[in-house]
User: Which sequence fits this backbone?
């Protein structure tokens, strides 16, 4: 009880609502989260630009990392899900994957230790972008009426069931999808962030209390393991967001159901 | 709209999005997409495409080279078989020719040997006859000389010629 009493766990608002560096009080307040998003943009651009400039026949270093990523997205996402027609979406999906991945990885980078994707302000716009994209693609490829018909009316279903299914399809395709995308990424990254904070706070509390030093290795080992696990989760969530985007755009291109 | 954003920026609820974060992340993402599409991605895409084409070209070239090597190998094997066949034929032919030449040489040598032997025998016979003739005269002279000495007198040779001839004939017959 005395140990738990010494844990200095910060309030939830304190670990998520960062104070602005500048433009505070305005709609353009620039804080740690926005800095992370801007840095993720810069890092993604630098990675691709550097890789594109090297042009070595046998890739090494940055070129190797970027080419492996592009190759993975091409083969495991675009060609598997969208087919060769989906290759026009490769730059968009690569950008999306690397942007989310680097934003996620800021969770374990010292000093930052905050993924921008643990904020709805970052994941929701990304999800809305995907939502707008797949609707526009669907209308462009299939025509307005045909796209909405294919999207909300499942084929081969008895007419009576359509009364039930059409509202569900409308709800799932046009309302649930963007929120599911946003909340899945946000929730996973927020949970990881809070877990790391919890074990870091616990380790600090045990380090402060001399008698509980013997127990310090336990939360510290957990913190170390979770840091590795969060790197894995960062890559996995970036992959899930990208693959779902490819599925939605692919359905719009081909005509779902 | 602005009031909603301002309200969001001032929201203390940690779940609700803050306006600054929305605006900066949207800006960041769109700027990233624009520069990726226009500047950063095309070189990578081109490089990957070029590499794929180079690898495909290399594989095709290697396949062509392999096929050519297979053809060359088959051709070389055919030539080798033909050369072996030709060499066997030549050896057989040479062997037959050699046997013919050998038989001819042996036959010719045997003929020459027989001829040489015949000539030698003839020469020997002529020499023997010449020697016999010479010997006959010598013996006759010797016998006469001996008889003269025995008789201590000078005898007429012509009266003894038949006797000498008879004697020589006898001695010749006994020597054979």
Assistant:
């Amino acid at each position: 009880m005395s140990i738990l009493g010494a844990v200095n766990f910060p309030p939830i608002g304190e670990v998520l609502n960062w104070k602005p560096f500048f433009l505070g009080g305005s709609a353009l307040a620039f804080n740690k989260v926005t800095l992370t998003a801007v840095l993720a943009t810069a890092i993604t651009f630098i990675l691709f630009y550097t890789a594109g400039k090297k042009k070595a026949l046998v890739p090494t270093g940055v070129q190797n990392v970027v080419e492996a990523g592009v190759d993975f997205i091409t083969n495991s996402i675009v060609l598997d899900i969208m087919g060769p027609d989906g290759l026009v979406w490769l730059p968009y999906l690569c950008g999306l994957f690397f942007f989310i991945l680097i934003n996620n990885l800021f969770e374990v980078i010292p000093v930052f230790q905050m993924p921008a994707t643990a904020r709805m302000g970052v994941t929701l716009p990304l999800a809305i972008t995907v939502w707008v994209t797949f609707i526009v693609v669907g209308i462009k490829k299939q025509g307005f009426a045909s796209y909405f018909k294919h999207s909300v009316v499942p084929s081969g279903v008895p007419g009576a069931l359509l009364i039930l299914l059409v509202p569900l399809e409308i709800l799932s395709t046009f309302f649930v999808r963007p929120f599911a995308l946003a909340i899945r990424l946000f929730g996973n990254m927020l949970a990881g962030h809070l877990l790391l904070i919890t074990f870091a706070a616990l380790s600090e509390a045990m380090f402060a209390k001399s008698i509980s030093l013997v127990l310090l290795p336990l939360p510290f080992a957990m913190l170390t393991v979770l840091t590795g696990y969060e790197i894995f989760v960062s890559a996995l969530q970036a992959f899930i967001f990208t693959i779902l985007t490819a599925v939605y755009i692919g359905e719009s291109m081909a005509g779902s159901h | 709209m602005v009031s909603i954003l301002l309200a969001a920026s001032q929201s203390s609820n940690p779940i609700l999005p803050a306006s600054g974060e929305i605006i900066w992340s949207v800006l960041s993402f769109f700027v990233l997409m624009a520069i990726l599409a226009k500047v950063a991605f095309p070189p990578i895409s081109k490089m990957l495409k070029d590499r794929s084409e180079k690898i495909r070209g290399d594989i095709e070239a290697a396949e062509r080279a392999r096929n050519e090597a297979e053809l060359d190998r088959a051709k070389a094997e055919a030539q080798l078989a033909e050369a072996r066949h030709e060499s066997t034929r030549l050896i057989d032919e040479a062997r037959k020719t050699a046997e013919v030449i050998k038989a001819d040489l042996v036959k010719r040598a045997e003929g020459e040997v027989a001829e040489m032997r015949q000539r030698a025998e003839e020469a020997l016979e002529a020499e023997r006859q010449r020697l016999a003739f010479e010997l006959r005269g010598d013996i006759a002279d010797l016998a006469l000389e001996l008889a003269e000495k025995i008789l201590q007198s000078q005898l007429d040779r012509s009266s003894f010629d038949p006797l000498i001839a008879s004697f020589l004939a006898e001695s010749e017959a006994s020597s054979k």
Remarks:
- Residues 21-175 of chain B form one domain.
